[in-house]
Amino acid sequence: REINYIRISITEKCNYRCFYCMPQDDDIDVTIAEKEWISSQEIIKLVEMGVQLGIKKVRITGGEPLVRSDIGDILKGISSIEGVEELCITTNGSLLYEKLDILKKYGVTRINISLDTLSSKKFKKITKVGDLERVWLGIKKTLESGIEVRINTVIIKGINDDEVEELANLTKKYKLDLRFIELMPIGEGRNYSGLSGVEIREILKHGGLELYNLNKQEGASE
């Protein structure tokens, strides 16, 4: 198949410590020194090389990409490359409200936001330090800006598996897509069980909701 999409992780650093992703021991630091991060110039050069090979869509991810102080320089450089038709970013939403204007200014066309629960109590339990209200302010500001919004949700048994319908119903209330992401059994994720695509389909079917398969578009897990 034609490869026209590149995903670039610009940092492994994250300001959340989600229990299914990050070690919970505060003494364990899995990040590398900022001075060793791939530079903005290297990222832009990488995209330039990708475009020469047929890349048209670029997604910036992390860790949490918005923790980088030079995120504006990165996006500005990428958006100025002739041949880049889509510029997307995946974020946990914690800094979205403050940095949305930068993202819009430099041509971000879609923002994927990781959101596993609509409960403030559960949100704090999952992320350890996150503020659900702040994330929602960022989501609503993004919706108002006209930038396309997609919510990425990991469903974990015993944690948020009672929220499948409620999360899916966001698509009725707001102009956004919601994607159920498979819990990967690696790292901390090995300690938990996620709902399968079949199980999620049954829940949605029982609630009279229709599931659209994005796998055909991006090869994403449900």
Automatic annotation (TrEMBL):
GO MF: cyclic pyranopterin monophosphate synthase activity; GTP 3',8'-cyclase activity; iron-sulfur cluster binding; metal ion binding
Statement: the UniProt record of this protein carries the keyword Iron-sulfur: yes
Keyword Iron-sulfur appears in the UniProt entry: yes
SMART domains: Elp3
Source species, domain of life: Eukaryota
Pathway assigned to this chain's UniProt record: Cofactor biosynthesis; molybdopterin biosynthesis
Pfam families, sorted: Radical_SAM
Domain Radical SAM core: residue ranges: 1-221
Any one of the GO BP annotations: Mo-molybdopterin cofactor biosynthetic process
Keywords from the UniProt entry: Iron, Iron-sulfur, Metal-binding, Molybdenum cofactor biosynthesis, S-adenosyl-L-methionine
Protein name as annotated: Cyclic pyranopterin phosphate synthase MoaA
Organism name: Hirondellea gigas
